[in-house]
Amino acid sequence: MTIDNYNFAGKKAIVRVDFNVPLDENGNITDDTRIRGALPTLKKILNDGGALIIMSHMGKPKGKVNPKFSLSQIQGAVSDALGVEVKFAPDCAKAADAAAALKSGEVLMLENLRFYPEEEGKPVGIDKEDPAYDAAKKEMKDRQKEFAKTLAGYADCYVNDAFGTAHRKHASTAVIADSFDADNKMLGYLMEKEVNAVDNILSNIKRPFTAIMGGSKVSTKIGIIENLMDKVDNLILCGGMTYTFAKAQGGKIGMSICENDKLDLALDIMKKAQEKGVNLVLGTDCVAGDKFSNDANTQVVSAMDIPEGWEGMDAGPETRKLFADAIKGAKTILWNGPAGVFEFDKFTAGSRAIADAIVEATGNGAFSLVGGGDSVACVNKFGVADKVSYVSTGGGALLEAIEGKNLPGIAAIKG
Ligand code: AMP
Description:
14 helices; Rossmann fold; alpha/beta; about 35% helix; 6-stranded parallel β-sheet
């Protein structure tokens, strides 16, 4: 079933959203992107004449009630965004009466699902090495099924619009779908958009395809780097991970971040790129700092010859040009991970050069997808989020989707 084809009139819909929004110390929302992202789905249900049960997680309360992570803090903001009063169920597993009382056009939001360990389905307070772990895990999986059935019992249909958690097999993101037949479960609009964006990157590639992978570590990105190697024409590797490559090739990297146990892996990636005819673009120079701070003294040095006591913090001017050249001619672009410590204003130039080149290529007709918390923070910081084709809300979920993995949250609905 698709959300456009479903008539919610007279139905109760339980919708998994990602309202894991950042809050300041007073509980005020500092970025409401995720709430705005879910509005098309929520409004469609209300406009059809349905009743809405909203469920989400917030933060990592680890299966325990913790007021710091209470969704009651955003009840007012969700009401304002929807233009409808939002009722609140302070215990997500004991909301049957409140759900039953809901009338067409009314909205009920459930308390944080992760106040129950059943949501994630991982046994708590027991070590993986413990001989009793397997039994505890099985027991928790059974409890997870029951928890999911309780949530499903509130509604006639289920909508999943939480892409950020689609790679997790949680009660509300996947297990709950077993309680609904194929005609009564569907992806929300945000999910559909995310799935289409990934599809554009994976199956509708216009060449040249340039992928830019950055961030601090190669180890966390290896799955996607290997997968992309079969698809891309240009692969730019940037950010902290590149010093592992420099060291592996015999370079001097001073006190730059480096994964010493991944030197062979770096050489292997370089070899594979060569074998597959992928143009691997690594930086030639970098902006080095004498401490990990925005107050650091800086100098531009060769990426292979960073002086003792200095660390590579951003891409140098020659590298920025190399990166921009590989991006500007592209027709398909994927960016995940910054090119430097962009949180410090002194070290934003590399990420900014990438963002600018992506904007230019997009203006010339390329499809550009930017995903992952830090790259999204970059395009927001540089004010260019609306000048790229698609900004994904997913971090881990996006990477796993692009790695070609079947996401449990999507598979539970689409099979
Ligand atoms: P990740 O979580 O692996 O995607 O990496 C994102 C983080 O990498 C950001 O917080 C950046 O500050 C950091 N980063 C990027 N370049 C460097 C660098 N040269 N040295 C240290 N950290 C970096």
